[in-house]
Design goal:
The structure holds two protein chains of two kinds. By secondary structure, chain A is α+β, with helices and mostly antiparallel strands. Chain A is 57% helix and 8% strand. Chain B has two domains: 73 residues, Glutaredoxin (3-Layer(aba) Sandwich), CATH 3.40.30.10; 135 residues, Glutathione S-transferase Yfyf (Class Pi), Chain A, domain 2 (Up-down Bundle), CATH 1.20.1050.10. In chain B, helix 1 runs parallel beside helix 3, helix 1 packs antiparallel against helix 6 and helix 4 packs antiparallel against helix 5. The chains are: A alpha+beta, B alpha+beta. At the A-B interface, strand 4, helix 3 and helix 4 of A face strand 4, helix 3 and helix 4 of B. Chain B: GO terms for molecular function: glutathione transferase activity.
Chain lengths: 224, 230
């Protein structure tokens, strides 16, 4: 019986990219449905009624929501080219750092991104502390799990792209090669990796999108 | 206590819902463990050593190696102690579904925290959010977890991750309602969740884990009065 795999995504969602990469790494064929989140399709709302978000993976009609849950589902369903380590302790480390990336790192980078100029120094402190912790994890490794791309690289993938976008928009260097040699080199390796590099959303479109978003936040924060 | 071969230590705090999850999971799986009560205003050197990133409880230390984050710990326990009672089902789609709803119960806790943080005059919106999440949870788990429509299957032998999560969040629901003079769980609005938690807190295993009512009311009121924000 032919398997039917569909992925609901947007053109820019870093969460959805995790699944694009995972499916590509496993060589799984699937249909893509691009969503406009200002005008959600009935299918998306049917498959993800609680959150109405992307990504949603639909496998033979059954929906799986939440990107990290989807990654584990993909890994457990298509067991070749495993994304997660086999050892339970290593697995727990991977899950811990993926949660850290989403909860702490992303929040602190975002706070820096939308900070007014006078608040940037303070916002940068937390972001840099979190970056240092990630830098530690990459010592002696090309990718988070070693020589090949895995779960944690996909989880942090959004960061590889967003850093350069933030740096361009804000005209600052966040991840400099001297302070973060391992992180810098991970970013380079990951951005250029064969399976990864063809999937990045168009950079110019991303710059415009995030510039507009930043201006909106800064305008809202300015006392009238 | 475990022998040197399989030593499990849980660093926790008696009122923390995150710690309760791990405590209950360890009991369900029959894993002997040592418990270390932490004073969160004076954290032990071990806690700071084992969880340098967040400096929080729970931390599970298995043969000297620390695992942090309650949900990460639950998955770890299931994978290492893979025979005997399992917190997650075996089939990938069911696992994904249980993981989704376990995370959703965590979101319910976050909404309850928002409720606690709000001033009495500003209760309405956060309370609505809690009720909405309870409704979603009730509708969401009904089909796959309570196909007969009631918690008849709940027993000490077949507790899983969703039961663990629910106990951690709603086990002390009466204490939370008393401490904050709000109705969180209404049997008329959420009959299934109400009867589910009632069935759970009757179990001796669960009774061992849920904090005593008066103690819980006391600590919640104290925290609120001292301006603590979750």
């Amino acid at each position: 019986m032919a398997e039917e795999v569909k992925l609901f995504r947007t053109w820019s969602s870093g969460y959805a990219l995790r699944i694009v990469w995972a499916l590509k790494l496993k060589g799984i064929e699937y249909e893509t449905i691009f969503e406009d989140l200002t005008n959600k399709s009935p299918s998306l709302l049917q498959y993800n009624p609680i959150h109405g978000k992307v990504p949603v993976l639909v496998h033979d009609g059954k929906p799986v929501c939440e990107s990290l849950v989807i990654l584990e589902y993909v890994d457990e369903t298509w067991k070749h080219n495993p994304l997660l380590p086999q050892d339970p302790y290593e697995k727990s480390m991977a899950r811990f750092w993926a949660n850290f990336g989403d909860d702490k790192l992303m929040k602190s980078i975002w706070q820096l991104f939308i900070a007014r100029e006078k608040d940037q120094d303070v916002a940068a402190v937390e972001a840099l502390e979190n970056l240092k912790l990630v830098e530690e994890q990459l010592k002696g490794k090309k990718f988070f799990h070693g020589e090949t791309i895995g779960y944690l690289d996909l989880a942090f993938g959004w960061f590889a792209d967003f850093v350069s976008i933030l740096e361009e928009i804000m005209s600052l260097k966040l991840v400099d090669g001297e302070r973060f040699p391992h992180l810098s080199s991970w970013i380079q390796h990951f951005m250029d990796a064969p399976v990864i590099r063809d999937c990045w959303p168009p950079r110019d479109k991303m710059i415009i999108k995030y510039q507009v978003m930043r201006e909106k936040y800064l305008a809202a924060a300015t006392p009238k | 206590m475990g022998s040197g071969e399989n030593k499990v230590v849980l660093h926790g705090m008696w009122a923390s819902p995150y710690v309760k999850r791990v405590e209950l999971a360890l009991k369900i799986k029959g894993i002997p463990f040592e418990y270390v009560e932490e004073n969160l205003r004076n954290k032990s050197p071990q806690l700071l050593k084992y969880n340098p990133v967040q400096k929080k409880v729970p931390v599970l230390v298995h043969n000297g190696k620390p695992v942090c984050e309650s949900l990460v710990i639950l998955e770890y326990l299931d994978e290492v102690w893979s025979t005997g009672p399992q917190l997650l089902p075996k089939e990938p789609y069911q696992r994904a579904n249980f993981r989704f709803w376990a995370a959703y119960i965590q979101q319910l806790l976050e909404s309850i925290f928002k409720l606690f943080n709000a001033d009495k005059e500003a209760h309405e919106k956060p309370l609505q959010e809690v009720h909405e999440k309870l409704r979603n949870l009730e509708d969401g788990v009904k089909e796959f977890y309570f196909p007969e429509g009631s918690p008849n299957h709940i027993s000490a032998e077949n507790l899983g991750i969703l039961d663990v999560m629910l106990v951690s969040v709603l086990g002390p629901f009466r204490a939370k309602e008393e401490a904050f003079s709000v109705k969180i769980l209404d049997p008329g609005k959420n009959p299934l969740i109400f009867s589910w938690i009632q069935a759970l807190i009757e179990l001796p295993l669960v009774k061992e884990v849920v904090p005593p009512h008066d103690k819980m009311v006391g600590v919640l009121q104290f925290l609120k009065q001292s301006g603590f924000k979750f």
